[in-house]
Amino acid sequence: MNLQEWIQTIGIVVAAAWGIHTWLWKEVVVPYRAPASLNLEVSLSPVKGDGTAIQGEQPLPMALHITATNPSSRTLYLLPGYWQLLATLNKPDKEGASYRIRANEALIDSSIAPAERLIEPLKVRSLATGKLFIDDTIKPGEKLERKIIVHIPSSYPTLDVDLLLPALSRPPQSRLFKGKRLVWGYATPATLFPRLCTGEGQNLKCANVDVTQLDAAIKAFDPRSTVFSRSIQVAL
Questions:
Q1: At residue 153, what are phi and psi to the nearest 5 degrees?
Q2: What is the pLDDT of residues 28-46, one digit of tens each?
Q3: What's the Rg (C-alpha) of the chain?
Q4: Exposed site from 75, 114, 120, 181, fewest CB < 10 Å?
Q5: Which span out of 17-21, 51-55, 229-233 was modeled with the highest average pLDDT?
Q6: In the 8-state DSSP scheme, what is residue 136?
Q7: pLDDT, average across residues 54-74
Q8: Are 50 and 68 in contact (CB under 8 A)?
Q9: DSSP type of residue 2
Q10: H or E segment at 219?
Q11: How far, in Å, are 64, 66, 145, 149, 220 from residue 232 at the CA level?
Q12: Largest CA distance in the chain
């Protein structure tokens, strides 16, 4: 092999190596390093009702429209999530006597519930809830949609809509929850809590789990995991 042929061979090898490097970087490394990203959108709009009464009240049929879009370059693996409609029972507070206390609580508390001077909330009530999606993956650029008809008593002027969806950046394995599966449970008046279950039907066995412990277990399995959430308030 003369010098010119040797140089051409080296050039071909270098070009091939660079091509492999570029492909690995674009197709493997970049998607792997990309953060989990998911856009959750929700709307609540009135629809024509069927006139059915609920405990003497005329219900308001509403269409709950939920979408999830994956704008990232990686597939996300979805754990069970939920949606919930919440209403707050209020009483008039003409003097606003407790506003300072409630305003400080609203600014310190981890929630984003507001404080109002002339309204004192009594308690929050869950009006409807359910699973978010049955899909267990969402691919890059994919969009998941759900439309749910709910009936709301007319005595509630405003509603809060809450969504929560945990997502992994890698496929779940049995060791994630030690062979158990994640579900959500309901406790009055408005609390949803995670549960880990085994079995099916009459053999179903579930145990409540602390949210902090659940988050730690998910993060230990996948440090890039993210819990996506969305909340809106709707005036009826």
A1: -55, 140
A2: 555 556 667 899 999 999 8
A3: 25
A4: 114
A5: 229-233
A6: S
A7: 83
A8: no
A9: -
A10: helix 211-221
A11: 12, 12, 17, 17, 31
A12: 98
Find the mean pLDDT for residues 131-158.
Answer: 91
Distances (CA, A) of 34 to 28, 44, 74, 78, 159: 10, 32, 7, 17, 35
Q: What is the pTM of this model?
A: 0.76
Residue 116 gets which letter from DSSP? Answer: B
Please name the helix (run of DSSP H) or strand (run of DSSP E) that holds residue 7, with its range, or none. Answer: helix 3-24
Q: Give one DSSP letter per residue of 152-168, joined into a string.
A: EETT-SEEEEEEEEEEE
Residue 197 in 3-state DSSP? strand
Q: What is the DSSP letter of 189?
A: T
The strand pairing partners of 57, in sequence order, are 54
- Tokens matching residue 167: 């997502």
Residues linked to residue 50 through DSSP beta bridges, in sequence order:
none
**Mean of pLDDT values over 61-81:** 93
Place of tokens 């080296």: 10
Residue 234 · residue 222 · CB < 8 Å: no
Q: What is the pLDDT of residue 211?
A: 86
Distance CA 221, CA 174 (A): 11
Dump pLDDT digits (tens) for 169-190. Answer: 999 988 899 889 999 999 877 8
Please provide the DSSP assignment of 21-72 as one string.
HHHHIIIIIHHHHSPP--EEEEEEEE-------BTTBPEEEEEEEEEEE--S
Average pLDDT score over residue span 139-162:
90
Q: Which residues in 93-157 belong to E strands, given as ranges? A: 119-131, 137-138, 143-153
Look up tokens 């978010």; give the residue: 132
